[in-house]
Design a protein that fits this description.
Strand order of the largest sheet: 1-7-4-5-3
Structural class: alpha+beta
Distance between the termini: 41 Å
Shape: elongated
Number of strands: 15
Number of helices: 6
Length: about 300
């Protein structure tokens, strides 16, 4: 009985420690939506449509479905009322029947799919229209870029943080510690390589830096951190390539993580030059306040 009491105390202590070092697992529910365009509606792909009584309810639905943006208008602005017909019947003309449209992706700058519509306002998880060149939207996750110009880990991190001079949008090396993030970014590498084959170019990307690294100066035990200084222990997902993570003599001071095109993580020397994934932050004013998409 005494042994079980000791175990219970140890579990309680560990739980307390992790509650201090790990951000609240529900923190992504606190992310903020920005009103970017009054009397406008996005024609972007929808995840969900519904009639709701308030703006706050539409926000909650968008969080629930991990949308990155939404259209909302008061019910009294609707042109028609939905009957008992299946929702699929109304999907293509949702603006006539439903006042909350949860969207897969946010609108980009100078987009032709953000149209005038006095019945709706357009809201986004990002504080401005996306203006980052060659960005890739991963539905229900976030906005990413793949830089094919090889850099060391430190230089890649600096390039991601650098604000876009015109829009002040910025980011960080991509958060990777979930199955959806890992598989989605690996798919981007695979599709890039397939396009290279189609145009008969030999340059392919087998590895790309992501936002996960280890530095022995932070402690004596092995522990990986993302670019927000969250420990990998705070996340349940792992995708290590067999034989990884490696801590050989040439990596005894620092070790950085690269994603392979087949969806596994490898530790590499941080001075090695590789392509890299950046993730656009929802806002750039303060890194601590800049959420990474839907945090999936």
């Amino acid at each position: 009985m005494f042994i079980w009491q000791i175990i219970a105390v140890c579990v309680s202590i560990l739980t307390t420690i992790y509650s201090l070092i790990c951000r609240d697992s529900k923190a992504d529910l606190r992310y903020h939506f920005y009103l970017l365009a009054e009397s406008h509606r996005s024609l972007g792909e929808k995840l969900h449509i519904e009639n709701v009584d308030s703006l706050e309810t539409c926000k909650q639905l968008t969080r629930l479905y991990k949308g990155l943006a939404f259209n909302y208008g008061p019910k009294d602005r609707l042109r028609n009322k939905a009957g008992n017909t299946s929702r699929d019947h109304y999907w293509e003309q949702a603006q006539l029947y439903f006042n909350c449209h949860v969207l897969k992706c946010p609108e980009r700058e100078s987009s032709k799919t953000l149209i005038n519509d006095s019945s709706f306002n357009y809201y986004s998880l990002y504080d401005q229209l996306i203006a980052v060149p060659h960005h890739i939207c991963v539905s229900q996750v976030g906005i990413f870029t793949l830089s094919t110009n090889p850099e060391t880990f430190v230089n890649a991190s600096m390039q991601c943080q650098k604000p876009n001079n015109d829009t002040k949008q910025c980011g960080s090396l991509a958060h990777i510690a979930s199955e959806k993030r890992t598989t989605s970014l690996a798919r981007i590498l695979t599709e890039y390589n397939e396009k290279q084959e189609e145009i008969k170019l030999k340059s392919k990307i087998n590895l790309a830096y992501v936002g996960l690294h280890f530095n022995r100066s932070r402690g004596n035990h092995f522990e990986m951190f993302n670019m927000d200084d969250d420990s990998l222990r705070c996340f349940g997902y792992r995708a290590w390539e067999p034989g990884n993570p490696k801590m050989s003599s040439n990596l005894r001071n620092t070790s950085c993580v690269a994603l392979s095109s087949h969806g596994t993580w490898l530790t590499v020397d941080c001075k090695r030059k590789l392509p890299y994934f950046c993730e656009v932050l929802t806002r750039c004013h303060d890194k601590k306040d800049g959420w990474k998409g839907a945090n999936q």
